[in-house]
Protein 1
Amino acid sequence: MASTEHAPVQPNSREAVFMLIKEGKGPNGQGVAGTYDNWSKYDEDHNDYNGPSFVVSALSELTNRKDVSILDCGSGTGLIGEKLKSEGFTNISALDASQESLKLAAKKGVYKKLSCVEVGKKKMPFDDNEFDVLVASGCVLPTHISPDALREWVSIVKPGGFILFSIRRVFLELIEGEETYYSKEFVEHLNQVLEELEKTKKAEVIFKRDCPNYLCGWHSYLYGIKVVQ
Ligand SMILES: C[S@@+](CC[C@H](N)C(=O)[O-])C[C@H]1O[C@@H](n2cnc3c(N)ncnc32)[C@H](O)[C@@H]1O
């Protein structure tokens, strides 16, 4: 007799992250750090990942300097850092909540400093105006990094510097068949923080770019923010 039960979610997989996003906990009840700690084959599961090219080409449009200090926030295993380095950027640091992901990132030899911090739980270990640029690919989303982090990011990036962050379209728009990922609350929260930063003249949204096939054929939006003060 065919079973109607679903196969259990493998804890070391993309499905585990989807479960975290939808249910607030990973398959073994872990939070965000534990869920990514278990995903040891993250790089192998990202053969179809064009995010690094989108992020790095957007950054190259904004600056000619290769020595800008860059924080890769939510760096994971370092795929963005690797692409930055291959395009000549030389001054890159990483921060992530998952110690196991950071161990994989460290092996790539692209980051000068790696910090294990869960954004939102603990203050980030950086001074005001420490970085020229902050990039965050695929980590501002429900259960991951809250839009509230933008306020802290604006303070650690120098005036005139840039923040680039990407969000999968399913989190921001109702898309047939993918309704479970959409969160009206999350969208309103993100827009409210962005409006507040613009109104208080701390930052300016310079673009929101549609990036088709960011990952696995899925669209993402890449936001470009210029820090004003
Ligand atoms: C989808 S992965 C993206 C990793 C990397 N940026 C990339 O492009 O491959 C999301 C990453 O964000 C990290 N993350 C999620 N929430 C976080 C938080 N609150 N603080 C720090 N890192 C977080 C996870 O540990 C994970 O490594």
Protein 2
Amino acid sequence: MRLWIALCSLGLLLVGCRHTGGDAPLSYDPPGSTLTTDKAIAPQHRRTIGFTQSGVWVSNEFTGARLNDFYRTDDSAYTAVIRPENAPINNSAWYAFKIWAERPQTVNVRLTYEDGDHRYVAKLSRDGEGWTPIDDASYAHDTTDGTATLRLKIGPDTLWVAAQELITSKHFARWMDEMARRPAVTRRVIGESRQGRPLRMLTITEAPETSRYVLVISRQHPPEVTGTLAALPFLETIAGESDLARAFRKHFTVLAVPLMNPDGVDNGHWRHNTGGVDLNRDWLHFNQPEARTVSEIFGKLKDKPGVKVYFGIDFHSTQEDVFYTLARDLTTDPPGFTDAWLDKIRAAFPDYTVYDEPYGLGSPVSKNWFYETFGVPAMTYEVGDESDRALIRKLGIGAAEAMMELLLAEVE
Ligand SMILES: [Zn+2]
């Protein structure tokens, strides 16, 4: 497995490299990704473009949009140009735009990329809230030149086209407001992103004297929406009404920062924050305010007498579902948690294949910081880009239940 991934990282295997977009130390990282001091980013020109002859309009004037240029190449053919915030960059080529036409027509839109290749199957929406993947017959991914062509039926009603469901800071704020209505949940602003967006943390507990902690983060990488689709039900389950959740909350406190990179998400970035940096490579030097703020809040637990952290988890997305775990020769407290947790997930989802890829330390990612700071089991929970959305949700719930059962057994 390690050799296979090493070959992938060297580009020697052209097919079957599952995790080239992931976060493991042996997977592909562009040069300089662990140098986390500020890098310049190119701002996206926000505008609405119209074509007089065809009556077609396109716009990137909304939160989370990414469309850098758009031009007509033939009667019904258009080319969209998508660029990252800066380069070199991991290939997570996010795009999102609105398109409509004065009279009904079918257009072909070719998605082209600079500093990257097409990755995400297009998702379509009529209102920017409900999304469905484009049907296979209207979608052609050309892997030889890294482009994709979408056949879109458009008319006066706006069609939203995006790499994944649009879940931006507005959606997170709404979700956190909902969560905070539950008696066991409080939320607070712990700091600001580089562009001044609030970094919000949820505290989930009913423990009178809080002393046992679980730490949860997600969405360091803006396009990794499927990680969010697992993280939110994971947290909802911990905050839920089940006997298990109530018992868990009497003994444990969960601190969760579900949106680590609000600037990147709202600016339609491929990977970085507005400092042009991969936040999940900043968990050593903490040059960026997002990782620094959260590490300072979490890090205070280290010096508190009587306090013990039990587990740290960070939700991401890559090509397929996979759990990046710690190498088993690293001693954790509690011991054996990772294997017991994965076994519980296997037992709860017998038709689901659990991919476990353990790694040693070395890369400055959050998972390793959790371990190095607290000596706890830690995990990068990776969800496939195109994994079934209903199953993602069920697994997020099942993963939370398995975690709560195992950690409760530690204290009972
Ligand atoms: Zn990621």
